[in-house]
Amino acid sequence: MSTPNPAMARRILSLLDLTSLNDTDDAAAVRKLCALAVSAAGRVAAVCIWPRFIPVARSALLGTGVPVAVVANFPAGSDDIGSVAAETAADVADGADEVDVVFPYRAFLAGDVDTGVALVRRCREACGSRVVLKVILETGQLGLAENIRRAADMAVAGGAQFLKTSTGKTQPGATPQAVAVLLDVIAEARARGRSVGLKVSGGIRTVAEASALLQQYELRFGPQSATPATFRIGASTLVTELLAWTA
């Protein structure tokens, strides 16, 4: 694992989906979060918030070029395709640039092999050509590598543009083992001409942890292969340490 340094911290910052998904969040908290999105060290890849704060975030980020990401079907991962698609469509209409939707992992674990693809496909349609769709697999709950692999394949088949490890609301979150499975799926998708990225999220609290996951990605796809278009790190408190390293 690489030792954290200012250059590494700045690079991780550029890949960060700066996140706040607390039940207590309000407009003031979102504005405070957005104030951290651009600094002397650079700008983050996106700010990820509850959908109800889209107008607040768009106003706070106006002119920065930082996208607004929101969550859908979060965190429970319902299997109600129509409801989740409608939620996604509403987020897009309200001005979201990216949507992180939770895969119906409970239904999948109960043996439902159809709903996952259909739900992702409907959300992809709702996003249209402008809005990025990330699919949260909740890998810690899927458990076995075989389950993670099958769910990831379903998400890709449905049109996911990013595979994301976790909501951060269950344990474990992002693990090297789960990431290794997702990297296999992503590599195979790219071999078929599909551009699929990876978002690691869930329990990433230090620069060292983020650096290790970034290194794992680049050992697979090559040095400097991680960009905001291909690799994201979802975290809430990590930004404080990143900014301290770059000061």
Instruction: Write the CATH homologous superfamily.
Output: Aldolase class I
Question: What topology, given as strand order, has the largest sheet?
Answer: 1-4-5-6-7-8-9-10
Biggest sheet, open or closed, and with what strands and sense?
8 strands, parallel, barrel
The SSE order reads HEHEEEHEHEHHEHHEHEHEH
Mean pLDDT equals 97
Estimate percent helicity.
40-55%
Number of strands: 10
Strand content: 15-25%
CATH topology: TIM Barrel
Shape from CA axes?
globular
Number of helices: 11
Which residue ranges are poorly predicted, with pLDDT under 50 across at least 5 consecutive positions? none
Q: Tell me the domain tally.
A: 1
Measured between the Cα atoms of the first and last residue, the distance is 22 Å
CATH architecture: Alpha-Beta Barrel
Supply Rg: 17 Å
Structural class: alpha/beta
Provide a concise account of the structure shown.
The protein has helices spanning 6-14, 27-35, 54-60, 81-94, 105-109, 115-127, 139-142, 145-158, 176-191, 207-221, 238-246; strands at residues 16-19, 38-39, 42-43, 46-49, 68-72, 98-102, 132-136, 162-164, 197-201, 231-235.
Would you kindly provide a written description of the structure presented here, covering whatever features stand out?
- The protein is of the alpha/beta class and 247 residues long.
- It has one domain: Aldolase class I (TIM Barrel, Alpha-Beta Barrel).
- It has 11 helices and 10 strands.
- The strands form 2 sheets. An 8-stranded parallel β-barrel has the order 1-4-5-6-7-8-9-10, surrounded by 8 helices. It has a two-stranded antiparallel sheet with strand order 2-3.
- Helix 3 links the parallel strand 4 and strand 5.
- The longest helix has 16 residues.
- The mean pLDDT is 97.
